[in-house]
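Deviations from the work plan: none for this task. Representative record:
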Amino acid sequence: MSTAGKDVSSLKTIIGLEIHCQLNTRSKLFCGCNTDFRESEPNTCTCEVCLGLPGSMPMVNKKAIEFAIKVGKALNCEILETSEFARKNYFYPDLPKAYQITQYDKPLAVQGYLNLDIEGQEKEIRITRVHVEEDPGRSVHVGSGDRARYTLVDYNRSGIPLIEIVTEPDLRSPKEARQFLGKLRATLEYLNVFDSEKEGSLRVDANISLEGSERVEVKNISSYKGVEKALTYEITRQRNMLRRGQKITRETRHYQETRGVTTSARSKEEEDDYRYFPEPDLYPMHVKSWAEDIELPELPDARRARFMKQYGCSFEHAKTLTGQLKLADFYEKVVEQGADASLASTWIADILLGELNYRDMNISQVPTPTMSELLSLLSQQIITDANGVEVLRIALDDLLTMIKSEKIGSSATKTPTPKEIVSKRGLAKVAGDEISEMIELALDENPQAISDYRAGKGQALNFLVGQVMKLSKGRADPGELNAMLSAAIEKRGL
Amino acid sequence: MVTKDDVIHIAKLCDVGINEREIAQLTEQFSDILEFWSTLDELTESDESGRISKISNIFREDTVTPSLSQEQALSNTENATDGYFKAPRVM
Amino acid sequence: MGTLSFSLDDKYNAFLSHKKEIPFGDGPLSGIPVAIKDNISTLDMQTTCASQILKGYIPPYNAHVVDLLLASGAAIVGKTNMDEFAMGTTTETSAYTKTLNPRDITRVPGGSSGGSAAAVAGDLVPMALGSDTGGSIRCPASFCGIVGLKPSYGRVSRYGLIAYANSLEQIGPMAKSVTETAQLFSVIAGHDPRDASSITAPYEGALDPELKGKRIAVPEEFFGAGVHQGVSETVKTAIDTIASEGAEIIPCSIPSMRYALSAYYVICTSEAASNLGRFDGARYGKALDGKKSWHDAYQDHRMQYFGPEVRRRILLGTFSLAAGYYGRYYHKAQTARQMITKEYNHILSKADAIMGPTMPEIAFPFGAKNDPLTMYQTDILTVPANLAGVPALSVPCGEVDGMPVGLQIIGAHGDDEMVLNLGYGYEMVRS
């Protein structure tokens, strides 16, 4: 049936996600090799088990299962009575045993949900299942496309414990998908089972379709921003196809991050036959009662509610602050160090975050005393808001420089504190006398503005405020200036 | 019972190369063997697993143990480059 | 402790590789030369599974049992020949050499642990390790006239045993007498934390020959039409001897035997098809042809370096598991397995052991069985013990046409003690 000309833009978007996260256990899922391999030379964190050497046998890491149970519980899932590992058989250079040990018909947890806050409305995204499996090794294809010459493989990653989370197709837009991932990531961080700062620790595959059409699988998305971009591109591509009267075929596509496009991988008409069967070298897990005894830490929604109650944060601020574990911890620590809770919530949620994003920094790179000292200066009105932002920017730039130089081996020097920055650059708020002098000078230099103001042009006052700000090098408080200037002008008129 | 196409499909699925001569022979042998296996059709599949042992919850603690050195890991291949294993390109 | 000088005149082609000077330590097996089947991983000694695809492979680790042997002071002298990847009943599928039966060199030694059996039967070593997935220790023990034990599943660690069928196989001892077999067993039995199927059940080694009062179940299916008459009679005589020492003979029936062979072959080929996928030449063994693309190279590699029997079993296993084909057979085989296990356990709850022939015939000439199905059917009496995970011993009990016949003694899971005791008791009274 041709869809050309139909109102394609009104078709509902249907998105389901399949997320793989690396669990941050100390050792791998089936052997004792170190999971901290990122700084290591290739093939230096392997053993006969994760290399799949003949005769080797897997042994399940209890901590990985504990972490998986926590995730299942946090996602409100039912932990199954009997859970088993299975072999998924296929051939690829990065899969050393030619099968992946995963979970098939008896996963760890099923049928849960995660609540999202979408523009003030709560929306439940259903979780189909949560299961545990091992990561394969990492392939590097040398030469590209048709002229790919060979594949280099590093098995350091082989055997890293992964948790796979599958959602129902409840997401209705690329933006919602990104929000879901943000909430999921935060939840996993709160559970302390996942380190989001590790490269490649979270991978997403998406199934996306327009109502009434076949679904397309998009693989190889490895960042949050990537998710929204990839899905937006894909949905646009699908809409355009329908507008042209073309039919969407069921297929797998790969997201190419650098180009921002999805490209066809292969047609998905036939289901792959992985010949699943229970892993004969491993035994069933009966972890339901163990799961009942596992206590979860405070999760994002609970922490958000507590921030609102305990610190008087607005819903939006609380949501932002609790959206990342480290950010929430940062906020509470800063308040603990004496900062005003309300001031801190505005400055951290609205200002600091923006400055960090701009510099591609993360919250763990900022020492809490830096923030609490800055907030203290602001509370005491030693600096103006404008200069507060200036101090913050300088402090962050200093930190960034230090971090970069640390990376190339020079030793860390302490960066200047906010107090030191203020004093060194003379950013302290001007005292009352000084301002009066500057006001008189500005009025002396701009008689036209005075006349304009008296003639009723409100703009003139803004202009004068600007002039005083210039004279004070930003150390005057614009709010206060309005009143002071009006008074000064009036005085002259007398 | 088993056709040549079945044999060819299965060989592709498990990436086992077989030559022309073998296809005919295997088709015949498999027909015999699968005919033999058909006694199993007398049984109704149950939900029971095939496990004889009733053990469960076999775990190990999350402790790091020494890995092989890179040299040991690569010791059985002639095709190593800069510490990586080398395999033919995947199309 | 010391160094053993091992000079080998391998007239039966039992060994694939061996050492000439072997240092050894103190312990219960101090200085005793022991041979190991070439599917058991030995650090710094080539381990090939008698396949071309693993030519030159030297494992960077020892199998658990090898570590135990070394700790007991044994001198590991070499690796023995076998059917390729343990898939066979005669050792004829080895890609390297043809092992001869020391009792008659025109006949097969049995398989797949034929090299280990020939090494012991031919007086090259007093003890050897084999592995038994569907009879691979008991068959060559029976054909060569020695003793071989397939232990209870889980009693001996499989860590380092190159897997053929994980849920069925065990490493086990082979020697000329039950005493020596038991001695070797006491060294290798015990828990291994790296093998999830491993149970804590060490073997203490005290043998008790008392036969009086023992209850012996004798299933009619073990003496059916497929069993050679001479073999039947010889084994019946042996059982009569045991009875005359005061044991009680209880005739019984195991109807589920009818499914045993099919269930066995479905399960072992399925597991094998999966286990053998890893031999792609990228990390060990023969290297892939770099000029081809991955899948082409991989397929051609397996065609070239796996023998026909191995490829046949991989294909069969893939049939068993593939959706839309015979995928249902895997599940039915599991059902059959449960049935057989229940029946065996039931009988063994009312008897101390089951007895019957190990093999349905004596060792046959080379090349006598070249049709796969005919070959598979010789496993009929040995596979049930693997399916049920129970211990089974083969001990020589006479001859037919000058060739040895093996008496099979099968016990309840964990009761290897009973099985060895009965074997020992019989040895003492056998004429």
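The radius of gyration of chain A is 29 Å.
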